[in-house]
Amino acid sequence: MADRSKMGMEFPAYTFTVEKDKIIEFAIAVSQKESKEQINSIYYDEDAAKKAGYQGIPIPPTFPTCSFFWTGGGLMGTVKTLGIDLSRLLDREEEYEYFGSIYAGDVITRKMKVIDMFTKGKGKRTIDVTILESELINQRGELIIKYRSTLMEI
Amino acid sequence: MIVDYNDIEIGDEMPPYISAPITRTHLVRYAGASGDFNPLHHDQTFVKMIGMKNVIAHGMLIMGIVGEAITFWIENKYLRKFNARFMSMTEPVDWDNVENTKDRATIIVSGKVVKKFEENGEKKFECEIIAEDALGSKKLSGFFIAALP
User: Fold this and answer.
1) CATH assignment of B5-148, given 3.10.129.10, 3.40.50.11750, 3.10.690.10, 3.90.1530.10?
2) For A97, A102, B70, B91, which has the most beta carbons within 10 A of its beta carbon?
3) How much is the pTM?
4) A87: nearest CA in chain B?
5) Mean pLDDT over all residues of chain B?
């Protein structure tokens, strides 16, 4: 079960560059395609993205969650830090709030903290819930995306 | 593709979207793209050890497919909020038994506009979303909010 003493814990800030090829790879994965020519051109062609009203190549809507896996030793490291049992871990809920757009080449700082930890249910059928909130801030100091990941141990 | 707030009415249905049957290769590709290397999604020996029959799809792959379905209709830049609650696990198709396993691995995304409102000077609407497999088992329910010109 997740370690309750981690409630309120703030993870070290993590800064990464949004790589164009990583956006392409992600867009191919969620559209179940084989190559970039098969995906929406806004994810690989800057001219197409600009014509469609973007300032650069944007990220797909669920791309922000990658930042969770790219830091803190990846999933295993984060899970260990929180005392979560990997063999019981499942996603429960994910929610994004978009205040602006993130583009290829942006330098993003992610701030993540534990905002809630609780147990649901009684007796043998209990579920331990951990909610993490992450803020993605760009190189101009603007908060662009906030997202909440609700993890459960079943 | 919808670009005008006046084109949207409460009760409008989102264009339906049907995924390709999810294969283990799709899971591996998503693992590499996202960095989610939970062995639950690719390692048969791990899932056996925890008492499961098969590897399962990342919930976030299913949500990614839903994101693809949404942005097919409403452009990425108009999204303001996107929520998904995961309801059941998805097992991939077995290549040696495609006929009997493809339906459990095929994700059908549908949605309905439930609200139109103005907020922070933007014209917004809310659309509820459901993703289910081709057998009717619900995988995810959620909503998105978009602001349109």
Assistant:
1) 3.10.129.10
2) B70
3) 0.96
4) B50
5) 96
